[in-house]
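We now fix the convention by which a protein and its fold are recorded. The integers have meaning only within a learned vocabulary of local backbone shapes. The record below shows the convention in full.
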Amino acid sequence: MNRQRVKVVAVAEAFGLLDEPVERRYWVHPMNNDRENSEQFKKFFENIRRYPEKFFEYYRMSVSSFDELLENVRPHITKTTTTFRNPICAEERLTITLRYLSTGTYFAALKFDFRVGRSTIGIIVKETCQALWTVVQPTEMPVLTTNDWLEISNVFNVKTNFPNCLGAIDGKHIRCKNPSNSGSLFFNYKKFFSVVLMAVADANLQFITIDVGSYGREGDSNIFKECPFGKMLYAKKLNLPEPNPLPNTNNNPQPFVFIGDGAFALHTNLLRPYPGRNLTDTRRIGI
């Protein structure tokens, strides 16, 4: 590769514009040859752990939370030492991933912070995210029982004075670069490319369930109907409590519901606001 082509390829790789891998000039870039000997990450990691407030600022979690998460995920992200090179340790793999998730920094920028290749950063983030989901999901987003739903409803009633409510639903557009050969599938009504995060949250602002990856052009209602949680809701497989009378009433039991905005379709277990702007006080307040 001539010098001019090297420059073009380097810029294209930095901005993620290449669809296929290109010929590599180095097995390990000369800038990173002394990476292991310098022990840059090891020194940084040992030093920042001495200052909990700085650790929280950098990792967005406490030292104890990081250690707990690391021990749970370590077996899934620890690599075997080979004759070619020593593997990147689990502590650094988790650090790279948390920095990417918490700041949204480009791989091309992270490679200078950690002195590893851009492609290596990409592999680490992908593998670690999969490991995090495998380990954390069963405890943080388990399949809820009827008693779990009743507890969520009680908290909603106490905090918001909204009885029989099980969660709030909404979609969030996550900005992305338009994937190759995808046309306008990811182009949303806000005039940028995105994938959609569909989430259900409880009264403590914690996710009950999430679904990520739908096309940006799709509407929230269709995305919800097609996501696993939505399908289970419409198929009545969520272990929802039986209808219950509202406070200060003795009859006419009402179903437990999720609440969403005007983009969602009305359903027995899904409430949305009255449509339109010129609403009466009764419809505007919802009494």
Notes: Residues 40 and 227 are 43 Å apart (CA to CA). The beta strands are 165-175, 194-201, 207-215, 257-259, 270-271. DSSP finds twelve helices and five strands in the chain.
